[in-house]
Structure formats: C-alpha cells, structure tokens
Design a protein that fits this description.
single chain, 1 helix, three-stranded antiparallel β-sheet
C-alpha cells in the first residue's frame, strides 16, 4: 500500500512538471530581423520595416 501511494504521488508530480514545462515562452532577441514578414523585434514589440530603416537589412 505504501509503495502504490508513493508511485501515485510521483506520477502526479511528474504530470504537473510535464504540463508546466510546455508553457515556457521565449522572446526573440532585441533587434531581431524577421525576413519573412519584413519586421523587426525591438523593446518587446514587433515593428514594421519602413524605407531606409537601420534595423532592416
């Protein structure tokens, strides 16, 4: 009985860990240029590229 309770507790802990690990969001680095969408990431916001913009190369 003691072993089955330990296995159940470890299973619940493992399930909680697996569920929480899928919620990690990684932001792109500052001034990252996205060629496909012609935009760059600056100060936690995506910005559209305009003509002669130094961030869009």
């Amino acid at each position: 009985m003691k072993n089955s309770l330990l296995i159940a507790q470890c299973g619940i802990l493992l399930a909680a860990f697996m569920a929480s690990s899928g919620c990690v969001v990684v932001e792109p680095r500052n001034d990252y240029y996205d060629r496909d969408h012609h935009r760059y990431y600056h100060e936690h916001v995506w910005r559209e590229c305009v003509e002669h913009d130094e961030h869009c190369r």
